[in-house]
Amino acid sequence: MKMLINVPETVVADALRGMAAAHPELAVDVENRVIVRRDAPVAGKVALVSGGGSGHEPLHGGFVGPGMLSAACPGEVFTSPVPDQMVRAAAAVDSGAGVLFIVKNYTGDVLNFEMAAELAEDEGIQVAKVLVNDDVAVTDSLYTAGRRGTGATLFVEKIAGAAADEGQPLERVQSIARQVNENSRSFGVALSACTTPAKGTPTFDLPPGELELGIGIHGEPGRERRPMMTAREIADFSVNAVLDDLEPRNPVLVLVNGMGATPLLELYGYNAEVQRVLSERGVPVARTLVGNYVTSLDMAGASVTLCQIDEELLRLWDAPVSTPALRWGL
Amino acid sequence: MLDADFFRRWMTAAAASVDREAERLTALDSPIGDADHGSNLQRGFRAVTATLEKEAPDTPGAILQLAGRQLISTVGGASGPLYGTLLRRTGKALGDATEVTEQQLTDAVREGVDAVMALGGAAPGDKTMIDALVPAVDALATSFRAAAAAAEEGAVATIPLQARKGRASYLGERSIGHQDPGATSSALLIAALVEASGE
């Protein structure tokens, strides 16, 4: 496997150095692995901190900036960051109004953020948390670690970020973030496995004529393998899986998200099929975002995330945002 | 009696064992996890040995607590908090005695394992490190060698289980037929006790 890297050990640090060079509006601490908006802490504003393994770019560092995250902590590839990073990030961005930790439901992320919250509170920082768990491919939390946090993370970070920018208090920002998560569902498919730099070979073996249904974002196989399907068939399967769980009564935000190696030509075509299914099921679409946002290294494939919204959430979604990967209204 | 030197040897032996077995741990983590268990633990235990050389705490409890803190600060993922908690709580239970008995160590490890179960919410049979650690604690009263054998058996016994915790749980029935990498690394940690004792 050929990769545009030096050695696996420095992949994350090298990427952070490059990110710093490309985005002088961010303060990137390469050694401690914390990405902070340069104007932080913003007086009177609740700060949003998220983080997770590297390999999901632009999540989360690409979403740091006005209107979205205050700071992000990238871990090793597909490994959650450590509490030290999160505490450092919280201390850098807290203006005294408190910090919201946005945590994807993966065991490592949950445990490390829990420890970080305790440590930050010891330092006098008020911390609230929101858990993102939107993946309908994981059904029964009695016998699993519970639904994974995937594409809805983008919706939570954007909408809660807008609420924080308006000066809403920590408790309110947290409850909006929870509302977004509770109203979001995702389903992902893989057309190829991904390759982590440390291992150097694909994380699982997927023959050319087959696809995985119900994948997460860490290169783990999904729940089911089938012969390759058309975009039309994949959209039918994925959107129906989401809608059977969500049953929205209001319009939805749509995220058609590439896993890293699927070109926009295919993603837009896939989006056409996603919109068709939504129309057939009578679900009105408020806004649609298509692109690579919550990726899984070089995996080919896509996920669909729907978020049922009301007028306030739509207003917050439309609010200006200025980050490396998401930017509008400014 | 077990003194500070014994606990230093334990941590050094565990680090060496993780170094030797890193590729196997990562290979076990590949089909049901994300292929980094070996490299993550290797990074953590290297930090442990480096810190122990620098700071040289002089009681068993202090050595384990320092090692636990290092793992939490360097490993990440679920392994960092879980292994970190195991060592920290075991160390805390040993208090500030300069020497401890094997019985005291057994009781302390049991407290550490209980803390890991409370943190991760896993029980025996969930296909996690607990499946190696619980039988190991039960056998510790007999001998280190018996504990190491029990841990190894416990790790192998995870093969037919369906994972109910951690990333492997997302695979449902497809997690059956693979040995749990966390149970495997836990068996290495217990086996390092044998090396440290020179048995």
UniProtKB/TrEMBL annotation, chain A:
<dbReference type="InterPro" id="IPR012736">
    <property type="entry name" value="DhaK_1"/>
</dbReference>
<dbReference type="InterPro" id="IPR050861">
    <property type="entry name" value="Dihydroxyacetone_Kinase"/>
</dbReference>
<feature type="domain" description="DhaK">
    <location>
        <begin position="7"/>
        <end position="328"/>
    </location>
</feature>
<dbReference type="InterPro" id="IPR004006">
    <property type="entry name" value="DhaK_dom"/>
</dbReference>
<protein>
    <submittedName>
        <fullName>Dihydroxyacetone kinase subunit DhaK</fullName>
        <ecNumber>2.7.1.121</ecNumber>
    </submittedName>
</protein>
<keyword id="KW-0418">Kinase</keyword>
<keyword id="KW-0808">Transferase</keyword>
<dbReference type="GO" id="GO:0047324">
    <property type="term" value="F:phosphoenolpyruvate-glycerone phosphotransferase activity"/>
</dbReference>
<dbReference type="Pfam" id="PF02733">
    <property type="entry name" value="Dak1"/>
</dbReference>
Automatic annotation (TrEMBL), chain B:
<dbReference type="InterPro" id="IPR004007">
    <property type="entry name" value="DhaL_dom"/>
</dbReference>
<dbReference type="Pfam" id="PF02734">
    <property type="entry name" value="Dak2"/>
</dbReference>
<dbReference type="GO" id="GO:0016301">
    <property type="term" value="F:kinase activity"/>
</dbReference>
<dbReference type="InterPro" id="IPR012737">
    <property type="entry name" value="DhaK_L_YcgS"/>
</dbReference>
<feature type="domain" description="DhaL">
    <location>
        <begin position="5"/>
        <end position="195"/>
    </location>
</feature>
<protein>
    <submittedName>
        <fullName>Dihydroxyacetone kinase subunit DhaL</fullName>
    </submittedName>
</protein>
<keyword id="KW-0808">Transferase</keyword>
<dbReference type="InterPro" id="IPR050861">
    <property type="entry name" value="Dihydroxyacetone_Kinase"/>
</dbReference>
<dbReference type="InterPro" id="IPR036117">
    <property type="entry name" value="DhaL_dom_sf"/>
</dbReference>
<keyword id="KW-0418">Kinase</keyword>
